[in-house]
Amino acid sequence: MGFVPHLFKKTSILIGLLCLIIFTSNTFAKTNPTTKILVWGDSLSASYRIPVEKGWVNLLRQKLGEGFQIINGSISGETTQGGLSRFSSALETHKPDLIVLELGANDGLRGISPKVTKKNLEQMILQSKQAKADVMLLGMKIPPNYGPIYTEKFEAQFAQLANDYKLPFIPFFLEKIIRDATLFKADRLHPTAEAQPIILESILPTLKKALGIKEESNIEEETIKNPA
After folding, report:
1. CATH class of the 34-225 domain in this structure
2. Residue ranges of the chain with per-residue pLDDT less than 70
3. Measured between alpha carbons, how far is 205 from 64 in angstroms, rounded to an integer?
4. Residue 210: CB partners within 8 Å, gap ≥ 6?
5. pLDDT at res. 4
6. Where do the domains of the chain lie?
7. Of 7, 100, 178, 189, which has the fewest beta carbons less than 10 angstroms from its beta carbon?
8. Stated pTM of the model
9. What is the DSSP letter of 1?
10. What is the pLDDT of residues 84-130, one digit of tens each?
11. Which of 76, 88, 94, 190 is catalytic?
């Protein structure tokens, strides 16, 4: 008769341990979530003709480390229309917490109306908000040979959208490299591998604020400047 209580006691202990493990696992999952960041851009974010591991998006992955999943949905040559056509599917597939929206350069180079570009970007912003995802907007500039009127309208649309939707915003994320021809390929449009750490340096402070990460001075700075 003593066997049954003894077996019951052992079973109770095992059930208790199992419940503790499940509770601990659930608590850990809730307090240590993986933040998903979707980079949605063109060749400037797609490591155009440079090793993928040296692109700024991959350097960002190295910099943020564990706790963050970086998804690069950028495609070389992409326009805002192309990006919009793929966007809802990407939201559904990846369910990102933050979207880094880097599109518009190819619209400008093709002379697409800024009204069309702005509308496409706005639709992606609205879809993001509907999906409960935050958006960080990267602005762009184009060469002056497109004329002052077009250039002004093109550049202004990014600031207008950032202001209207209260988005974290970088007016021109290539600002730190644009005057150094050695940091661009022969086409003077696409940054070299050597430019990628500098691009990341320009993006990182605003991105960290968008993620709620406090700045830590000089931490991993050398890793960014001198990637392996």
Report:
1. alpha beta
2. 1-32, 215-228
3. 12
4. 98, 134, 136, 168
5. 46
6. 1-32, 34-225
7. 7
8. 0.81
9. -
10. 999 999 999 999 999 999 999 999 999 999 999 999 999 999 999 99
11. 190
